[in-house]
RDD family protein
Amino acid sequence: MTDPQNNPYQAPQAPLTQETVGGLPLAPRGTRLGAAIIDSLILILVCLPLGFVFGIYDGITSGVQPGFGQQAVGAVLGIVAFLAVNGVFLSRYGQTVGKRLLKIAIVDQDGHKPEWIPMYLKRYLLWGLVAYIPLLGGLVLLVNYLFIFRGDRRCLHDLTAGTRVVQLPA
C-alpha cells in the first residue's frame, strides 16, 4: 500500500497568508467595489440637480454635444460636490462616505492615515482629469481599475498616491 503523504496525484499545498498593512488586513475587492458604488450614487444624487441648475444638460434633449465651457463647469461642479460630500471624511478618517459605511479606510504604506491634500490630488483629482482625455481616458481608467486583481489589490490610483485600502475592525 502507498503512503498517503507521498501521493503523486495530491494537489500541492501551501500555507495561505493574508497580507496586512499596519496590522490591518487588506480590504476585500467586493467591499471596495461596494464603497465605490455607494460613493457614485451619492455623487449622482448631488450632481444631477446641480447640473440642471447650471445648464449642463440643456443640450441633451436636442442631441447637442456639450461644449468645452459646459464640460469645464461640469468638472468643477463635480470636484466641488466630491469635496463637499467626502472632504471632511477624507481629511479626518482617510475614508469616503462609502468606505466609512463599509468599514474600510485608505492608509499609507505604514498603515497610517495619509496626508489628505497630497492623497486627494494624486488619488482622486489626477485620475478624475485622466477621464477627460478623449478616447484614451476611458481605456486608462479601465486599466486603473483592473489593477485591483493583482496580488496586492492596489489599483493604479493606489500606486500613484502610495496608498492601500484596509478593512477596519468591526
Observations:
- The chain has six helices and four strands.
